[in-house]
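Hypothesis: this fold can be encoded by more than one sequence.
Test: take the structure tokens below, design a sequence, compare later.
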């Protein structure tokens, strides 16, 4: 897990992070290391659902590795993606216990001695201190996000129904609730979401109906971070630190992270909203941006050219023998725009 900026690249003095990790293992050069470099799995203008899909991919990866390295630069905790990694570790801890966490290795700069040092979080206690607890309410909300974003499980065919339920009365909502419980009992594999659903009450289900994850903007709005390093967005003003993440007795940090597009904090249905340092762009505004082949930051005014890139895809499951996707597709193609270099 690595927010590899230029400053630290110089401190590591040409020695690649991968070599440093391999050097610590007796298998040496054969030790398998996975590093995703900037842009490998993520780009700008992805939908919020796609961002979460990547966080859920990282979550799966974190469950399968022996150790996780955190390259703790001073801006590490400031990135949405790295927050996603820490929050995924919290999610694993909340759902499966501290024993399910991989060994955590923090690689960081020691200001006093002017050199890089390595800190291991090896025992359950060390891991437990480093990775904070996640409150139950947010654990359930995270499960909803993963269930609707993870590539293998996203329930796109169900989102419209959930939105429709908002406009219906309690009786219909109750019927839908019992129906969901029945289907869950019959068909769902055992996983965190189904475990949570087993104990789900009607009041939990009501909360679910109003979860941001079922908003149209979750699947349709595009998220972009201003590439201008001097842009004074919320995120850059409030520097995120490990301390803030550790003050997770203050669940606001996870809540802020989850609410990437600010519909949940009372600014619904704006075309372009700034939330925690990035902008959520509605399809209407996106059409204009594509027409001009340029995105202009609403905060600092700087413009940046965009170009089309390889498409993204969204899976629509077959339900009761019916194709559920738009225009009768199973795999929907999503145009993917990125900043020009
Ligand atoms: Zn800007």
């Amino acid at each position: 897990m690595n927010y590899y900026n230029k400053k630290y690249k110089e401190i590591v003095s040409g020695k690649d992070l991968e070599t440093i990790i391999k050097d610590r293992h007796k298998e040496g050069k054969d030790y398998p290391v996975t590093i995703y470099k900037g842009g490998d799995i993520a780009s700008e203008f992805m939908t919020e659902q796609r961002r979460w899909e990547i966080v859920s991919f990282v979550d799966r990866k974190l469950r399968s590795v022996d150790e996780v390295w955190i390259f703790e630069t001073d801006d590490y905790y400031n990135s949405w993606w790295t927050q996603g990694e820490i929050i995924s570790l919290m999610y694993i801890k909340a759902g499966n216990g501290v024993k399910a966490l991989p060994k955590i290795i923090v690689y960081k700069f020691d200001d006093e001695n002017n050199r890089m040092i390595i800190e291991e979080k090896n025992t359950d206690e060390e891991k437990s201190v480093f990775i904070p607890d996640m409150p139950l309410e947010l654990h359930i909300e995270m499960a909803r996000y993963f269930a609707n974003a993870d590539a293998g499980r996203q329930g796109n065919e169900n989102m419209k129904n959930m939105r429709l339920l908002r406009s219906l009365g309690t009786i219909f909502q109750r019927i839908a609730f019992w129906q969901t419980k029945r289907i869950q009992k019959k068909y769902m594999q055992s996983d965190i979401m189904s475990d949570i659903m087993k104990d789900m009450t009607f009041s939990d289900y009501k909360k679910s109906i109003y979860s941001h994850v079922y908003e149209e903007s979750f699947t349709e709005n595009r998220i972009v971070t201003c590439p201008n390093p001097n842009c004074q967005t919320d995120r850059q003003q409030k520097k995120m630190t490990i301390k803030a993440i550790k003050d997770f007795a203050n669940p606001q940090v996870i809540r802020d992270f989850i609410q990437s597009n600010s519909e949940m904090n009372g600014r619904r249905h704006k075309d372009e909203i700034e939330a925690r340092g990035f902008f959520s762009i509605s399809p209407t505004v996106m059409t204009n941006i594509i027409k001009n082949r340029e995105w202009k930051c609403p905060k600092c005014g700087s413009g940046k050219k965009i170009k089309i890139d390889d498409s993204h895809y969204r899976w629509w499951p077959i339900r009761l023998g019916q194709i559920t996707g738009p225009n009768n597709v199973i795999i929907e193609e999503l145009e993917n725009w990125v900043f020009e270099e």
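Confidence is low (pLDDT under 50) at residues 262-271. Residues 6-140 form one domain.
Hypothesis status: open.
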